Amino acid sequence: MKIISFLYPGGPAAKEVPELLGCAENALGLRPFLEGKGHEFLSLTDKENDLDKYLPNADAIITTPFWPAYITKERIEKAPKLRLILTAGVGSDHIDLAAAADHRITVAEITGCNVVSVAEHAVMQILALVRNYMPAYKQVIDGRWDIGEIAAKSHDLEGKVVGIVGTGRIGQRLAIRLKPFDVHVLYYDFRRLSTVEEEVLGIRYNLLDELIPKCDIISIHCPLTPETDGLFNRKRLFAMKKGSYLVNTARGRIVETMALVEALEKRHLAGYAGDVWYPQPAPPDHPWRHMPNHAMTPHVSGTSLEAQKRYADGIRDCLERFLDNRPIERDYLIVDGGKVVSLSYSYAFKN
Ligand code: NAI
Questions:
Q1: How much of the chain exceeds pLDDT 90, in percent?
Q2: Which residue among 62, 157, 213, 351 is buried most deeply as judged by most CB within 10 Å?
Q3: 91 CA distance to ligand 1 centroid (A)?
Q4: CB proximity list for 148: less than 8 A, separation 6 or greater
């Protein structure tokens, strides 16, 4: 079999930190396993050139949301041998799922592998915004000491209303991690949780457009689907409370790019943080790099060293099963048997 992967370039860290499994150099630790079984394995990074060159002859491809190889319908149509697309991570929106289903290609991701990593990142970014951390840190680096400038925009998180949009694995973990901060948590998900779950998590259900104007902070945790593409459009961004904050560790395209810049420039929103962009890597002139009051990171929240170990193990498990003709773990499947089977995606893809 010919298996190809597109992973991020690890640079000097690839050698120095062998645990950096998710980079192209270390290739999820798969090389000895795959080559030992006589398979051809190519670990690539150049999505612009190598994707179109190697995909047409590949049986399986491994991609990652952190360095997404965009597997479009056109590319799928030019890859007659392709049977399996694996996402090293969570979130398979960089793949045309409907086209994969039409071509009976299995798509799987490593469900749950980095949900703690992202929930922790979201807590960090909520605090960074509310406490006004980024400008304070910059003052230190710049040799300044101006308490008034920072304190005038610094708040306690306690007592604030936090909205969680998408209460799946990450959204629920965020709710649990926010409990000690004594906040009021509202949530929206197209699948309402049970009364018991709501009580245990301490969260109250609201429809999206009811939730938006009530929140001091909103954190987005739903997948990118045709339904959530642009969900936070200009209208919804300006329906948010004046001076509120938005955090998005889900996917960049869920928030309308230029409307967000406008909402920050007009000071309607007090800040934005997250680590997801479109496209990725974000070009140097991406407007979100330079908009006011942001606390963005490159797409790293779900790729802590612990998360990389979990998704490397998960990818190996999928490949072992695929090569032995055994079914892939049910929870990992996004597209199978010509259908979008993941509950989180299936609502948007009515098969
Ligand atoms: P999950 O599948 O456990 O939860 C997603 C939740 O979103 C589900 O409860 C689902 O019902 C809900 N949902 C789906 N469509 C919706 C809609 N139109 N409106 C409202 N709710 C909707 O997924 P998990 O593990 O919590 O991850 C969520 C997303 O976070 C992923 O799809 C991915 O895009 C992103 N992610 C980002 C990472 C990063 O490194 N920044 C890493 C892992 C995930």
A1: 97
A2: 62
A3: 7
A4: none
Q: What is the pLDDT of residues 337-346, one digit of tens each?
A: 999 999 888 7
For ligand 1, atom 10, the nearest C-alpha belongs to: 344
- Which residue in 310, 265, 309 sits closest to 290, CA to CA? 265
CA dihedral 305, 309, 315, 317 (to 10 degrees): -170
Residue nearest to atom 1 of ligand 1 (CA): 168
Nearest to 68 by CA among 40, 91, 43, 42: 91
Q: Token digits for 163?
A: 């909205």
Kindly report the pTM of this predicted structure: 0.98
152, 173 contact by CB (below 8 A): no
Ramachandran angles phi, psi of 269, nearest 5°: -95, 145
Domains in the chain, please, with CATH? 2-112+303-346 (3.40.50.720), 115-289 (3.40.50.720)
Average pLDDT over residues 253-261: 98
Q: How far, in Å, from the CA of 128 to the mean position of ligand 1?
A: 22
Span 300-335, pLDDT tens digits: 999 999 999 999 999 999 999 999 999 999 999 999
Burial class (CB in 10 A: 0-12, 13-18, 19+), 211: buried
Q: Rounded mean pLDDT of 94-115?
A: 98
How far CA 248 is from CA of 59, 89, 126, 154, 291, in Å, comes to: 34, 17, 10, 20, 15
**pLDDT tops 90 at residue 90:** yes
Residues with CB under 6 A from ligand 1: 89-91, 114-115, 118, 166-171, 188-191, 221-225, 227-228, 249-251, 275-276, 299, 301-302, 344, 347
pLDDT tens digits along 205-226: 999 999 999 999 999 999 999 9
Residue 257 has pLDDT above 70, yes or no: yes
Q: What is the DSSP letter of 275?
A: S
